[in-house]
Structure formats: C-alpha cells, structure tokens
Design a protein that fits this description.
Layout: E1 18-22, E2 25-26, E3 29-30, E4 34-38, H1 64-69, E5 75-76, E6 93-94
Antiparallel strand pairs: 1-4, 2-3, 5-6
C-alpha cells in the first residue's frame, strides 16, 4: 500500500503448531526477522465433492451388417462398440470395406 506495507500468505508450516521465523527479501534488501507462532493447526476445509461420472451406454453390435446399418463402419478399437469378433484381420479396425 502507500505506507509500504504488504501482506503475503505464509503456507510453510500451515498445518503444524509451532514457532516459525521468516525474513522477507525485496529487491535484494532483507527485512527484519518476523516470528510467527501458530498455537494450533487450523481446521481442514472439507474436500470438494467430486462429480460422479455418468455411466456411458454400452454399445454392442452382433455383426458388421449391424455396424454398417448404424452408419459407424469402419469401427476403430477406441470407439464404443468395437469388438474382436468384428475385426477379421485383428488390426484394430473392424468392419472394414472389402478389398476389391
């Protein structure tokens, strides 16, 4: 501020009771030693609640005709609905177009 005072959060030892000594260095000039005594640890804040993920719908296809009818062919191994029984050559791509 205009008087040359400032505040900064002190996180060292934030959860442990005890006495801590600090020196603040600004532009190469060190302040006097500041002693902070924490008499008891502060209460921990409640952990934020994690959002529960929505379950993804399970997609299965009986055969490649069903995959093509759904407009999903070719189906890659990272896509929902991929299964080994749909992948003839085992290369990670199911229901590939036929070679001509």
């Amino acid at each position: 501020n205009a008087a040359g005072r400032f505040s900064t959060p002190l996180t060292y030892g934030a959860n442990t009771a005890g006495t801590y000594r600090f020196r603040v260095v600004v532009d190469g000039v060190a302040s006097r030693t500041v002693t902070v005594t924490r008499t008891k640890a502060p209460k921990k804040a409640a952990a934020p609640r994690k959002a529960t993920p929505r379950p993804r719908p399970v997609v299965t296809y009986k055969n490649c005709a069903a995959v093509r009818a759904a407009g999903k062919a070719p189906l890659h191994s990272w896509e929902p609905g991929y299964a080994l029984h749909l992948d003839r050559d085992g290369d990670g791509v199911a229901c590939e177009p036929y070679r001509r």
